[in-house]
Design brief:
The protein is α+β, with helices and mostly antiparallel strands. It has helices at about 50-60, 110-115, 115-120, 120-145, 185-195, 230-250, 250-255, 265, 275-285, 300-305, 360-370, 380-385, 400-405; strands at about 15-25, 30-35, 40-45, 65-75, 85-95, 150, 155, 170, 175-180, 195-205, 215-225, 275, 315, 330, 335, 340-345, 350-355, 390-400. It is built from 13 helices and 18 strands. Strand 16 and strand 17 (about 350-355) form a beta hairpin. Its main location: cytoplasm. This is Asparagine--tRNA ligase.
């Protein structure tokens, strides 16, 4: 039996294979918390009800020893996860000595050095289970709406989001780069399949040490032919709301373990508020920030803006000079582009960036020249505007930042199994 199947096995004699999470002895009873990856179950070893050898083995157990336990499942509301095992047989697979992460407090630096073991803790288990649910929910959302998953390459010949944050590598004598985004390739795929998305790792060589930055992160990027800017925002609202509802439905235990107040999450339903970039500048100035038209927003500005709203908020119509070359200028306000960032509430800032794309060949070529991009590397991208071009839109949602908000974590380092941060690539 797996521990998460306990409710279906009450009164049955079962076998569980796992590891000792913790234990304590109380005279003639040993309480052993066993985890198996799906949950934690308290196993009660009574001296009068087991052999002397079994009781002595139970007393010898240590944290993270691997064990096979057998006994009868019973409901016990006071026990972790609501069920207990009356243990009758115990098999020690491996007796662990001097496990480094004890129940006492440890510093973050120490825990990160032992990330391969820290994953076993109840809190990290809960966080990464929520990550799994978010990823599944994102896929389910798009799959159920007729999108086709298209895998984007990780090695690319050119930049997508600016040349200053590229990881460069040698590709048989030529320069190649780790992908910053699959978006450009999704635009090509959208012209073949209509509605597509990719979901995979992205890399940014950004020398930042903030609580929101990773060098390697996961991003889901949909792209849709004939999708307008307004329709793009609506798709994002529906997607975020769906993900939140799925997490609330399926991750009750995990949210309780990390002590997440779910009331703010329950408010995340469409429509989301919208704030024009010009109005955002005005609001920030009132809050004491020295920003003007043409400035990009950093973490502090995003935090200040998102704290003004109980729901995620769209900041839209950014100046074209601070946004990517492929974004469609607003015909009614050519200084700005049909782009929006979605800021998560509770001070978490940007989790989605999206826009309507330029579909006119001459305008795209002009914007590439203004950005000093090597045209020959992007000729295939320009081809999309030569052969059956249509208006189209898309966006990218960062999995780790979204998880940090949903789980209300202080730093993104806990949102990915093995984080890659500035000067941190071990283990």
């Amino acid at each position: 039996m797996y521990i998460n199947e306990a409710k279906d096995n009450v009164g049955k004699f079962v076998e569980i294979k796992g590891w000792v999470y913790n234990m304590r002895t109380s005279g003639k009873i040993v309480f052993v918390l066993v985890r198996d990856g799906t949950g934690i179950m308290q196993c009660v070893v009574s001296k009068n009800e087991v052999s002397e050898d079994t009781f002595e083995k139970a007393k010898r157990l240590t944290q993270e020893s691997s064990v096979i336990v057998r006994g009868t499942v019973r409901e016990e509301k006071r026990a972790p996860f609501g069920y207990e095992l009356d243990l009758k047989e115990l098999e020690i697979v491996h007796l662990t000595q001097d496990y480094p992460i004890t129940p006492k407090e440890h510093g973050v630096g120490f825990l990160m050095e032992h990330r391969h073991l820290w994953l076993r803790s109840k809190r990290q288990w809960a966080i990464l289970r929520i990550r799994h649910r978010i990823a599944k929910s994102l896929r389910d959302f798009f799959d159920s709406r007729g999108f086709t998953l298209i895998d984007a390459p990780i090695l690319t010949p050119a930049a997508c989001e600016g040349t200053t944050t590229l990881f460069e590598t040698d590709y048989f004598g030529e320069k190649a780069y780790l992908s910053q985004s699959g978006q450009l390739y999704m635009e090509a795929a959208a012209m073949a399949f209509g509605k597509v998305y990719c979901f995979g790792p992205a890399f940014r060589a950004e020398k930042s040490k903030t609580r929101r930055h990773l060098m390697e992160f996961w991003m889901l990027e949909p792209e849709v032919a004939y999708l307008t800017f307004e329709e793009n925002l609506k798709l994002q609202e529906e997607m975020v709301s769906y993900v939140i509802q799925e997490v609330l439905k399926h991750c009750k235990t995990e949210l309780e373990i990390i002590e997440r107040d779910i009331k703010p999450l329950e408010k995340v339903v469409p429509p989301f508020p919208r704030l024009h970039y010009r109005d955002a500048i005005e609001l920030l100035n009132k809050k004491g920030f020295n920003v003007k038209f043409g400035d990009d927003f950093g973490g502090d500005e995003e935090t200040a803006l998102s704290n003004e709203f109980e729901k995620p908020v769209f900041i839209h119509h950014f100046p074209k000079e601070i946004k990517a070359f492929y974004m469609q200028p607003d015909p009614d306000d050519p200084e700005t582009v049909l782009a929006a960032d979605l800021l998560a509430p509770e001070g978490y800032g940007e989790i989605i960036g999206g826009s309507q794309r330029i579909h006119d060949y001459d305008l795209l070529l002009k914007r590439m020249q203004e950005n000093n991009l090597p045209i020959e590397n992007y000729q295939w991208y320009l081809d999309l505007r030569k052969y059956g071009t249509v208006p189209h839109s898309g966006f990218g949602i960062g999995l780790e930042r979204t998880l940090a908000w949903i789980a209300k974590l202080p730093h993104v380092r806990e949102t990915i199994p093995f984080p890659r941060m500035l000067e941190k690539i071990y283990p």
